[in-house]
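Customer escalation, tier 2.

The customer says the design service returned an amino acid string that "doesn't look like it belongs to this structure." They asked us to rerun it and document both sides in this ticket. The original structure tokens are below, unchanged.
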């Protein structure tokens, strides 16, 4: 009797395991990994198209186009972040495609990451819709870089920001306020964080067109390759 019961359950168990396997494979497929080989060592980042699909597609296309190969980390601030992907070793800015749409709020709404240690985010100018190829890695928890989620309602009954309270504010005013967009986090370092820590600790000074925060010994990205 016990043997017969096991035999009856076996197909169900196999089906459950098959579904689990499919789900696991699907999860792996939506989390591509990119290896950065640098003069300071290698590190690997994992990116999340289920959270920020357009941002990840944009980043991976630059990887496939070999855009990052030969670029430097041109901005390194030890208690903040390390930034690269825009300039070559002679400080010539590399040509980019049109900016990618800002997905910071959408990513958070889908359970995405915040700007904490080890996370990968898009760099941009003061214009929230200006991100192209440059990225940065947080080496400190930088909550002030996180997108601000706007409460429901139009007008928004009550909204607090940096100690000030705003009442009955038109929703569009808040949604379009540049200071509330934050920075889109789309991945994290999953291997080689010690290399990132090494990069953040490198001595910096003036370099090329930049008056400060440039590594005195250039840190070059030899290659960025899709490994998963």
């Amino acid at each position: 009797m016990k043997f017969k019961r096991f035999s009856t359950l076996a197909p169900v168990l196999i089906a459950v395991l098959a579904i689990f396997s499919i789900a696991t494979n699907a999860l792996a497929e939506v989390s591509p990994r990119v290896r950065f080989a640098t003069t300071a060592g290698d590190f690997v980042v994992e990116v999340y198209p289920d959270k920020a699909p357009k941002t990840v597609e944009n980043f991976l296309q630059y990887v496939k186009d070999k855009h990052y190969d030969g670029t430097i980390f041109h901005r390194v601030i030890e208690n903040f972040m390390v930034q690269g992907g825009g300039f070559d070793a002679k400080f010539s800015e590399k040509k980019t495609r049109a900016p990618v749409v800002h997905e910071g709020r959408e990513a958070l709404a889908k359970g995405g990451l915040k700007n904490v240690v080890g996370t990968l985010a898009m760099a941009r100018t003061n214009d929230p819709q200006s991100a192209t190829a440059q990225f940065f890695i947080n080496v400190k928890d930088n909550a002030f870089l996180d997108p601000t989620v706007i409460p429901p309602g139009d007008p928004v009954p009550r909204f607090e920001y940096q100690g000030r309270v705003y009442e009955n504010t038109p929703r569009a005013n808040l949604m379009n306020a540049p200071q509330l967009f934050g920075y889109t986090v789309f991945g994290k370092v999953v291997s080689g964080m010690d290399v990132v820590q090494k990069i953040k600790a490198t001595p910096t000074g003036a370099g090329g067109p930049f008056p400060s925060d440039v590594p005195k010994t250039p840190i070059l990205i030899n290659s960025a390759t899709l490994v998963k």
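Tier 2 assessment: The sequence is consistent with the input. Residues 2-29 form the longest helix (28 residues). Residues 1-28 form one domain. Sent an explanation to the customer and offered a walkthrough call.
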